[in-house]
Amino acid sequence: MSISSHLAEVKQAIAECEKEAGREDGSVSLIAVSKTFDADTVEKVLKVGQRVFGENKVQEAKGKWPQLREKYDDVELHLIGPLQSNKAKDAVALFDVIHTIDRKKIARAIRVEMEKQSKELGLFIQINTGAEPQKAGILPDDADDFISFCQVELGLGIRGLMCIPPFDEDPKPHFKLLRKIAKRNDIRELSMGMSSDFREAIKQGATYVRVGSAIFGDRKKKLA
């Protein structure tokens, strides 16, 4: 099957999950995760109408998206991978949404760069719902204080929360936990769910799902 066929299948699955969950049509946005794929491969997805994309690394995105955006100026680009403070300038210039704010230094750096560049971004805080030491994200017990720090002290408009459940666990409790933290902090957007679990994420209230391999195929074997 082609990339366009896989994209159509994913969009159909999202629509079916919305209906099954009793949610409005279009309430879930698909982020096509284009990390590791070159500009020619990404353009195949652009040509069939997809406009929301996710990248993990600032440097990789910097190498392909400026040129693509010259042809497709309505793209919305999301940073879904860890951000280092020394990349904040480039990240703010290149991306429209950042999903991975997870410490005060990063939050401050983004605030400074948005002011310098006179640019407002959509901002998400990453929550480490599984408390995994190797994974980025604010621990659930620290989430409320960190959200308050970002909103009150820095004046950042936090649009949503993001999580990546442990790969070897049932994702449902993690999605529920993220939704609970968001609700008590009056945050409406939830970035959760990937190729293997986006259906469950939609049932639990995801507003953004991040899907890569189900669209582009295995990163070692690219689809036509």
3D structure, described in words:
By secondary structure, this protein is an alpha/beta fold. It contains nine helices and eight strands. It has an eight-stranded parallel beta sheet with strand order 7-6-5-4-3-2-1-8. The mean pLDDT is 96.
Short description:
This protein has 224 residues and is of the alpha/beta class. Helices cover 42% and strands 16% of the residues.
Describe how the helices and strands are arranged.
Layout: H1 3-20, E1 29-33, H2 39-46, E2 52-55, H3 58-71, E3 76-79, H4 88-94, E4 97-101, H5 104-117, E5 122-126, H6 143-153, E6 158-162, H7 172-184, E7 189-191, H8 198-203, E8 208-211, H9 213-216
Parallel strand pairs: 1-2, 1-8, 2-3, 3-4, 4-5, 5-6, 6-7
Helix pairs in contact: 4-5
List its salient traits.
single chain, 224 residues, TIM Barrel
Give the uncertain stretches in residue-range form: none
Strand tally: 8
Task: Give the overall form.
Answer: globular
Q: Please, what is the average pLDDT?
A: 96
**Tally the helices: what do you get?**
9
CATH C-level class is Alpha Beta
SSE ordering: HEHEHEHEHEHEHEHEH
Question: Would you tell me which CATH topology applies?
Answer: TIM Barrel
Strand coverage percent: 15-25%
Under the CATH scheme, the architecture is Alpha-Beta Barrel
The share of residues in helices is 40-55%
Give the structural class. Answer: alpha/beta
Number of domains: 1
Main pleated-sheet profile: 8 strands, parallel
Please state how the strands of the largest beta sheet are arranged side by side: 7-6-5-4-3-2-1-8
Radius of gyration: 17 Å
Q: Please name the fourth-level CATH homologous superfamily.
A: Alanine racemase
Distance between the termini: 8 Å
